[in-house]
Phosphoribosylglycinamide formyltransferase (Shouchella clausii), 194 residues
Amino acid sequence: MKVAVFASGTGTNAEALIKAAKTGELGGEVALVVSDKQHAPVLEKARNLGVKAEHLSPQSFSDKAAYEQAILTLLTKEGIDFIVLAGYMRLIGPTLLEAYEGKMINIHPSLLPAFPGLDAIGQALEAKADTTGVTIHYVDAGMDTGPVIAQQQVAIANGETRETLTAKIQAVEHTLYPAVVKQVLNEHVEGEQQ
Ligand code: GAR
């Protein structure tokens, strides 16, 4: 299975996924990284690990459908079977949703449906929650709304800061995401063999 990782920023999850793929722990190959941000550190991280990384700017296209059609052309050219969103801060539209129906998952730093959207970690701290976590879910047209595949809790300690909580959440993400991607890819391979 060939996987494309979509990311807008730092790319610590993309890096964890690429490294897991290289050691055979992902059950698939990360063949492509796509970013909507020209200077996203994830692009260089991926290239340094030998993975093709492409920036496509939404501003260069007339609308979302044209932008996603360009991404789709790239995905088709690279033979991508599955899309993994890892900090891709953009809603997916019908063009990609229809082409990769049931073959696109996302990770979000909260226990959805709590704290969807931007700055989930800040939202949890602001709400003075004592627990938050990580959710991995199938992507649908909504913002962080698709069917949940896996969740893991993270406790928020007294005096927790954004930095300490982010570190705790990222540590969970970097283990949970490769394991769940492996599980989902296996299910798809088995589904196709039946
Ligand atoms: C991750 O914590 C991910 O859960 C979050 O963005 C971060 C990306 O970090 N995604 C969302 O908030 C999606 N709504 P990374 O670039 O270091 O992987």
Notes: Helices lie at 12-22, 41-48, 64-77, 94-99, 120-126, 162-193. The chain has six helices and seven strands. The radius of gyration is 16 Å. The domain at 2-193 is CATH 3.40.50.170 (Rossmann fold).
